[in-house]
Specification:
single chain; alpha/beta; Oxidized Rhodanese, domain 1; 2 domains; five-stranded parallel sheet; 10 helices; 12 strands; globular
Length: 284
């Protein structure tokens, strides 16, 4: 096993008994935060632990950093140890379907620690069930470990100060993964202010998918590479509403072989926490 972006259900099913495999169920629903944990208790992939977006992959006590602020890296490292995950393990993360809520978020957070052997299950639980593969309600047997021995690499995380400093640059370095109508500011069902960061481009994360799975790498490369407009991938900053689906867009870039983009962790909900920051509306 050496999966670093995506893994298909057949490959994962064949590796279920490998002692080096760790599986994480990251199902979550924004409008019903307890639904993912309830669904996990009812049925999940054999051996999977559950990661809650609000409780495990965010620290909601941190103000001004968006709706899903990153937790302190030490807290995340401890939680990984409690799940029995160490640097030696191949980790596979899944959610209910396409990886956007919040499997790609956990994938990104592990990469922030330098953990490369982590992949998202392409198609998620929906694809697993479509193949009629096994599930269980039994809790996994976890051999807890010490805290994961690494911290977040801050160079891989963009913040509001960097975004503000770069507003005068030519458009193309900042890409927003939200739906087009939210990006344009026509509707805003979640955050108190509608619109986008001035100069940002829109690439809805759903455009990277077909039938609930990621498009082939070559096809994604053909679609995403022109967005660079001569820039290196590591010049890009990706954002969304709260730093979750931006990770899904990052996964698409990585799957396409365009490696190095960074995520603005606070994203739109963090940007508008300061009313002095400019807002743009309309198509771009």
């Amino acid at each position: 096993m050496h999966w670093t972006t995506l893994v298909d259900v057949d490959a994962l099913a064949a590796a279920l008994d490998d002692p080096g495999l760790r599986i994480v169920d990251a199902r979550f629903a924004l409008m019903d935060p307890g639904a993912g944990r309830t669904a996990y208790a009812e049925s999940h992939l054999p051996g999977a632990v559950h990661a809650d977006l609000n409780e495990d992959l965010s620290d909601l006590s941190r103000s001004g950093l968006g709706r899903h602020p990153l937790p302190e890296d030490a807290a995340f490292a401890r939680r990984l140890g409690e799940w029995g995950i160490g640097p030696q393990h191949q980790v596979v993360v899944y959610d209910a379907g396409d990886g956007s809520m919040a499997a790609a978020r956990l994938w990104w957070m592990l990469r922030l620690l330098g953990h490369r052997q982590v992949a998202v299950l392409d198609g998620g639980l929906a694809a697993w069930r479509a193949r009629g593969l096994s599930e269980t309600a039994e809790p996994p047997r976890i051999n807890a470990l010490p805290a994961y021995p690494a911290g977040f690499d801050a160079r891989l995380i963009a913040d509001a100060d960097e975004v503000r400093r770069r507003l005068d640059e030519d458009s193309g370095w900042l890409v927003d993964a939200r739906a087009p109508e939210r990006f344009r500011g026509e509707v805003e069902p979640i955050d108190p202010v509608a619109g986008h960061v001035p100069g940002a481009l829109n690439r809805p994360f759903g455009a990277n998918l077909r039938d609930g799975k990621f498009k082939p790498a070559a096809e994604l490369h053909a679609e995403l590479a022109p967005m660079l407009a001569g820039r290196r991938p590591d010049d890009l900053v990706l954002m969304c509403g709260s730093g979750v689906t931006a990770c899904h867009l990052l996964l698409a870039f990585e799957h396409a072989g365009l490696s190095g983009a960074r995520v603005y962790a606070g994203s739109w909900s963090g940007w508008i926490a300061d009313p002095a920051r400019p807002v743009e509306r309309g198509a771009r």
